[in-house]
Write a structure and sequence with these properties.
- The complex is a heterodimer of chains A (485) and B (95).
- Chain A is 38% helix and 13% strand.
- In chain A, the strands form 2 sheets. Chain A has an 8-stranded mixed beta sheet with strand order 4-6-5-10-11-9-7-8. Chain A has a 3-stranded mixed beta sheet with strand order 1-3-2, sandwiched between helices.
- Chain A has helices at residues 6-14, 20-38, 46-62, 103-111, 154-161, 178-183, 218-228, 272-287, 303-318, 337-348, 351-363, 369-390, 416-420, 427-432, 460-473, and strands spanning 41-43, 72-76, 115-120, 167-171, 187-190, 211-215, 258-262, 291-295, 396-400, 436-444, 447-455.
- With 485 residues, chain A is of the alpha/beta class.
- Chain B starts with a helix and ends in a 7-residue tail after the last strand.
- The chains are: A alpha/beta (485), B mainly alpha (95).
Chain lengths: 485, 95
């Protein structure tokens, strides 16, 4: 049961082979047993979870259940959930119990009837690529506990990889769904910007942040995206589009699919064995009937520099709300109001969050705004235009998700720039606002490798189709780490 | 470009984050490493390129000027560090 797909769990629940309470208890027991070493969850509340499971069982008995009603899920601790401690991985919110639900939580739990198993660990305010910036300590990669799970959705990735949950939510500002999915052998999807509501999802960089599913397969991701997505009045950047069934094209044959291979993703900078796994996956696609064409993203080398202006600028503005007045941490001792702000923020934020706030404050300050912030936004346009050109010649772009497999805990923690370069292949997708996925495509030295798929705007259903057909022909996504039985 | 220690202290003040001299020094090193990365942008000729603030070119939606939320003031205030009689307490600002 712990390795079952969401569809299989749905069938088992509908056939009364297992109740939601039993299924939830099964995963809560696994969390009890395995979480102390992995540190994937920061908050578990068995009573709340089991109450939701009882409500789901009642819906199943009454015949009012949806496809995913009663299935347990792990929620990244960036989503506010009423009555749940919601920390965003920060001391600033270590005692914050949310008085309201994020739209994603409302849709998945109140409407679809999914059962929350708890809140997963993450880099503080989603700023990191290794989960090491969390106030609650690092998460261990279930494939090798001396290594990072990736970040910022590292807790979600480790939880699903170790089967502490059948699936999880993540958010992706510069790669935070795709990179941990790659490092933990999961399938993860970052939708087109605006498809999933950001209401109640604690803001990091508002023009880039996007929530999405992390699961064992493309099929699971499609079913989850169906419940997460949709227009939301409460998010001013939510897109008012007709609802889609993202699973509708899963089985479509891939004959005639044109795969674009950006020459910038296949040059230097990627580990050779990772690259070999990616090339083998592309060869598999050719067997499935796809053709490849070289494309170019000539400005992609500028995506990391532009991102580290734009994201910190937006973060410095978003995080100004944490002032120790209305919610969150307040320093125990202070003098004036200004002193209270300065001490609360100095003590409540960790080192990486402070660095990004300072970069943001600087690039937005008088005399530097044009040279940094506007220049970065102009480069953002060039990067987005590169994709427009590339998609004239192809249907989907492929390449590595991460330049390396999971690195060792502590290996890059002291050097922010080295850490930032972990996201070299993922960031451009956020700047352009495109949908992207990571799909398991092999192993190097026992560690998972992810294949990145990038689609044109609103082609999530096609990306999921492209991933699903590959997963029918391969079994990489079904491999599980040892020692988690 | 590199930031001086005074500049680091000044932006920390702008961001309302207290910073000790020792922290300012290590932060200076990290920030200068990051700005070295960012500097790559300066070599790019972007004359005539329209800045892109957002992934979708949308204008802000307007909504009806009507009450749609219920009053949840006490629930929202319950998470505040210090309140009294429905007010948020902070150090005295005006003598």
């Amino acid at each position: 049961m712990i390795n079952a797909s969401l569809k299989q769990l749905s069938q088992a629940l509908a056939a009364k082979q297992i109740s939601s309470v039993e299924l939830t208890q099964l995963f809560l027991d696994r969390i009890d047993r395995l979480n102390p070493s992995l540190n994937a969850f920061v908050t578990v509340n068995a009573e709340k979870s089991l109450n939701s499971a009882k409500a789901a069982d009642a819906r199943i008995a009454a015949g009012t259940a949806g496809l995913l009603t009663g299935i347990p899920i792990a929620q990244k601790d960036i989503f506010c959930a009423e009555g749940w401690r919601t920390t965003c991985g920060s001391k600033m919110l270590a005692n914050f119990v949310s008085p309201y639900d994020a739209t994603v939580i409302r849709k998945m739990e109140s409407e679809a009837g999914l059962v929350s198993l708890g809140k997963t660990n993450m880099d503080e305010f989603a700023m990191g690529s290794s989960n090491e910036t969390s106030f609650f300590g690092p998460v261990k990669n279930p494939w090798d506990q001396a290594r990072v799970p990736g970040g910022s959705s590292g807790g979600s990735a480790a939880a699903v990889a170790a089967r502490l949950a059948p699936a999880a939510t993540g958010t992706d500002t510069g790669g935070s769904i795709r990179q941990p999915a790659a490092l933990c052998n999961l399938t993860g999807l970052k939708p087109t910007y605006g498809v999933v509501s950001r209401y109640g999802m604690i803001a990091f960089a508002s023009s880039l942040d996007q929530g999405g599913p992390m699961a064992a397969s493309a099929e699971d991701c499609a079913l989850l995206l169906n419940t997460m997505s949709g227009f939301d009045e409460r998010d001013s950047t939510s897109l008012d589009r007709p609802l889609e069934d993202y699973s509708r094209d899963l089985e479509k044959p891939l004959a005639g699919l044109r795969i674009g291979l950006p020459k910038e993703f296949f040059g230097e900078g990627c580990d050779a064995e990772v690259m070999a796994a990616v090339r083998a996956a592309i060869a598999q696609y050719e067997k499935l009937g796809a053709t490849t064409v070289e494309v170019s993203l000539p400005n992609s080398h500028l995506s990391v520099p532009a991102y580290y202006v734009i994201a910190p600028a937006e973060a410095s503005s978003n995080l100004s709300r944490f002032d120790g007045v209305r919610y969150g941490y307040r320093a125990p001792e202070y003098g004036s109001l200004d002193d209270m702000y300065m001490k609360s923020r100095a003590q409540g934020f960790g080192a990486e969050v402070k660095r990004r706030i300072l970069i943001g404050a600087y690039v937005l300050s008088h005399g530097y705004y044009d040279a940094y912030y506007l220049q970065a936004q102009r480069i953002r346009r060039l990067i987005a235009n590169d994709f427009v050109e590339a998609f004239k010649d192809c249907d989907v772009i492929m390449g590595p998700t991460s330049p390396t497999t999971a690195f060792k805990l502590g290996e890059k923690a002291a050097d922010p720039v080295q850490m930032y370069l972990s996201d070299i292949y993922t960031i451009a997708v956020n700047l352009a606002g495109l949908p992207g996925m990571s799909v398991p495509c092999g192993f190097v030295g026992g560690l998972p490798v992810g294949l990145q798929l990038i689609g044109n705007y609103f082609t999530e259903a096609q990306l999921l189709n492209v991933a699903h057909r590959y997963q029918q022909a391969t079994d990489w996504h079904q491999r599980r780490p040892a020692g988690i039985e | 470009m590199s930031l001086t220690l005074e500049q680091v202290q000044r932006i920390a003040h702008l961001a309302r984050i207290e910073i000790s001299d020792a922290e300012a020094l290590s932060t200076q090193g990290h920030l200068n490493g990051i700005f070295q990365l960012i500097e790559q942008m300066q070599a790019v000729d972007t004359r005539g390129v329209e800045p892109m603030a957002h992934a979708q070119d949308l204008s802000q939606r307007l909504r009806q000027d009507a009450v749609v939320e219920v009053d949840r003031r006490s629930a929202y205030q319950a998470v505040a560090p210090e309140i009294e009689a429905g007010l948020y307490l902070v150090p005295k600002v005006i003598e």
